[in-house]
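Support case: user asked for a sample of complex input and structure output to validate their parser. Sending the pair below.
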Amino acid sequence: MIELKNITKVYKTGEVETTALKNINLKIERSEFVAIMGPSGSGKSTLMHIIGLLDRPTSGEYFLEGINVNRLSDNELANLRNKKIGFVFQAFYLLPRKNVLENVILPTIYSGLDQELREKKAKKALKDSAFPENFIYHYPNQLSGGMMQRVAIARALVNDPEIILADEPTGNLDTKTGEVIMHTLQKLNLEKGITIVLITHEEYIAQHAEKIIKIRDGEIIAEEKVKNRKILYYNNEI
Amino acid sequence: MKFNDLLKESLSSLKANKLRTGLTMLGIIIGVASVISMISLGEGSKISIQRSIESLGSNNLIVFPGIVQPGRGFIASGRGGAEVLKIKDVEELRKIENIIAISPEIQRRFQIVSEVGNNINSTVLGISSDFFIVRNIQIANGEKISEDNVKSFSRVAVLGSNITKDLFGDINPLGKKIRINNLSFRVIGVMQPKGSTGFVSYDDFILVPYSVMQKQLAGTEYFNSIAVKVDSKENIEKVRGEIEERLVKLHNVSEPDFSIFSQEDILSTLTSVINTFTIFLSFIAGISLVVGGIGIMNMMLTSVTERTREIGLRKAIGAKRNDILKQILLESIFITLIGGLVGIILGSTITFVVGKIANINILISIKAILISVFISTLIGMIFGYYPAKKASNLDPIEALKYE
């Protein structure tokens, strides 16, 4: 699904060069739930940006479903981001002027979906992310943090992506709400088979994944299966 | 991205900041409105000048004494500065076959007293019977000054419509006496009102036979001008040449000591003055359009900065560079387009009201409307392009991190 070969990313600020990623080799299979863990400045965000097609590596190759994305144009990358990848950010990034439903619909505008289909898919996505139905015409500032993150997850789901990239999705939430969000992500992974890449610096959150990739100073230092995985998924829950 | 989605996104961000959008739009509204009113007033006055010159009679040539230097213009020349035109000249011009009427004219200002006691100071014009043909003057009441009146030195007068009111009020003036410079004249006719013809209004004139004017009122044998009517437009230049040739010979001079004007000369002089004025005023009005455009750029830059994170998010979830560019550009075009339309309505209304109040001719031309819509949309595109380009080039990662 995702395959990184010798990915290096170097930032240049004036004369100073900073190497954010060094020779990263990484393989993530379809329907895997992977956590990328590392302290701040370790390069995990840069790695996520590259996986998410928001940034291009300085050298190395990135295959997404067997396609070498290095060769794609900006427009083709935008198209892939739109159709195959869903982003969930720490700060939610909901548009304050739009209500919940409109926020979820936003990605479908850029994929040129029909009006009717958009609303149908957005409502479905909100249901899948366990967002309460009677709040869908509310505005983001009327919602709690947990609800906002659910809207963001629904927005990531609306175009039926194959991968969800979650960058510290619980960073702005309290522990309990954070766990509920992790629960939702696990459910999407298990029920829909969506590949999930979770970026976090918290061991506790990372243990919700199947596999943890530890990164430090731009290098992968460990890649291990989670032994006592926290499964919050129960069949009887929505 | 579909066009109506683009439109919706653009409109919703404009609506989010109604006051700011409105104020920015106001700049364009004022600019377009002033351009429209300036062009309309200019076009209107051009037409009214044209009409009044044409109402003076068509195919006319007017001979003035003295030389008007080229470039100084017709209006700048002092009429009657030189004294060279006499009855001899009129006789000479009568020999030109393409001339169908000759009107020698002499004018002075005099004190005029009516039988009923009203007293005014006005212009008295000494004329021949041809005056009515050449100058296209109709009589409303009574009769014209005839060739017999001229020959027999009749002290008769034809009054302009305004003068009639001033001297006699509502009393019928026909057959009544007026005193011009203490000489008694009998009123035999009243001219039809003609309105201002640009720079003279015969409504304020009193017509008397030129013979009486020359001998008894002014004490001169010269004329202020000789107007002639040519049989057709095609012959005007030919007749102009012939007049010049004959009069130079008659006056026994090497260079003409007189000037000949055609209606076209006068018209083109006045039109070019008005054109210059209109262009000048429109240019000043155009500056306000440019200032309005800068207002748009300013607003769009602020709005793009405020929406940095939103733009970053849009790009992350799949907006292409062009989608962002189009959205921002459409916002500024929308402001100028709506501003332009409101400006046209406002400008036309202002022009119409001013035209009515000040009683000036106006012409709200399609040309003016198209020009201002085009220019304002262009301004929207030009001044919106930089902010739009800036927004579309934002790096999504940087934009999302923006605080």
